[in-house]
Amino acid sequence: MFWEAPVTLPDHFLWGVSTSAFQIEGAFAAAGRQPSTWDAFPAFGGHDASVACDHYHRYREDVDLMRDLGVGAYRFSISWPRVLAGDLAFYDRLVDELLSAGIAPVATLYHWDTPQAVEDDGGWLDRDTAQRFASYAGVVAERLADRVAMWVPVNEPAMVTLLGYATGQHAPGKALLYDALPTAHHLNLGHGLAVQALRAAGVRAVGTANNHTPAWPASEADADAAGAYSDLHNWLYADPVLAGRYPDSLVDRLPVRDGDLDVISAPLDFYGVNYYNPTRLRAPSEGNPLPFELVDIDEYPRTGFGWPVVPAGLTEVVSLLKDRFVDIPPVYVTESGCSYPHTPQDTDRIAYLEGHVDAALAAGVRGYFVWSLIDNFEWDSGYSQRFGLVHVDHGTQQRTPRASYHWYRERIAR
Length: 414
What we know:
Keywords: Glycosidase, Hydrolase. InterPro entries: GH (IPR017853), GH_1_N_CS (IPR033132), Glyco_hydro_1 (IPR001360). Its EC number is 3.2.1.21. Belongs to the glycosyl hydrolase 1 family. The chain is built from 14 helices and 13 strands. The protein is an alpha/beta fold and about 425 residues long. The protein has a single domain, classed as Glycosidases (TIM Barrel, Alpha-Beta Barrel). Helix 8 packs antiparallel against helix 9 and helix 9 runs parallel beside helix 10. The two termini are about 40 Å apart.
């Protein structure tokens, strides 16, 4: 069966939660998952994700938490290294459990966990990785297309390029600065080729999940710096997907071949926005190889991660997208959430979610997915940051819903 026209997405507001495979599944050795680039990457306190939240074995408990929460959808990711090891059966079980609970499965194919073997062959610096990713997408879709409601090929390609290949803060830990830009095009191409594979398998709805941030100039004189950053963070990924072009400031640095942009800009059924905070920029100081410098935003409260809490930034992002792309498909907030130290009252998390849910509704989006259902392995920060609506004791794996979980349940019910 081949895709011919956009599917009909739910006409009601879709409430959901999000997680990712590497951050919660665990079961590395026991289930035979192949290594990913993150398995050997250093994390805060020497933590690793070999057990994480043991979701691989406790997924029924976690689905029960979602059922009690009242969400209509669960956005999870599929582990490319696990599928390479031949284990798609886990996702069969998870999807069936979700459907039995009345929860729509929303599957992300790539949430940063590149198989180490793929990275050893060049990773996203190598154009062939885009085709390898599409082949993987086809294998997964053949198995799950009849039961998964919505599909996201690539999560936050901007973060893979900027943090993984440009600055080295994330796996695979390369600090290539502008020499990392080929990864942006190959990630976009992987998205487009995966969309083709998913359509060919007859999936119901395909979109994306791009991280967006308003780029605020520190002064009127810093407008060029803010524009340069926005091109790198926002438009390097949205422009090719939604308009079949790259920003003029970057196109000459990208290894684009004839026909690539036609593949990348295949029509989507929805557009996912991951939003956490705005970014403030100023012109670079002497000797800085980049055309901008980041400036603290200190007039707003901050999360435990130190990120400024600016709900209006979410409304700003959606408005920017709708102004730039007249024919943008329905927009969903596919991630939004906050990390705070655990407290019984959980007042900061509730205030954050209340403000951002209100901002999402004001922006006219079609759904809101909280990051995250449960406390997870937060990449290079290990277990030091807690994003969950549900507290996880990583020693015992005991799950305890926070006050924000109950707040979200009541908000959904209203």
